[in-house]
What does this fold into?
Amino acid sequence: MKLTLITLLSILLLSFSELNHKTDLLCQRWRQVGVKYFGKDYKAIDKSMSELIWFKQDGTFDKELYGSMKFKGKWLFSKDSTKLALAITEMNGMAMPGQDLFDNKYANDSLIKLTKDTLIDGQLKYFGKEKTYGHDDIYYVREN
It folds into this structure.
């Protein structure tokens, strides 16, 4: 009985530790540097056309597109912390309705790669007439 309890507690502590580690890695400022659309080759993106996203420890984010469009939102990890759920709550200072029921069941961005310097976000969706399930990969590097 003691061994079972110790094993269970160890698993819980390791899971919590991994989630904290991923949160620390994610909560940075990230600059988009490229994209790989489903079934296509990687393409670098000019900084003037890229997005800047800043994930914060409190579960919010700020996002800027093309240097002028500004968004605020909320983020969550999926239960296994392999996907992200993102919800935009504000665009250019205007509140976006309908984000009250936001939770991690809407996590549909796969974390393809997450290191201290690299984030690859796989945006999952269906493609084409055949509804092939896949993802567009958005490449980011950490920005100081």
Notes: The longest strand covers residues 132-142. The CA atoms of residues 71 and 91 lie 4 Å apart. The chain has one domain: 2-142.
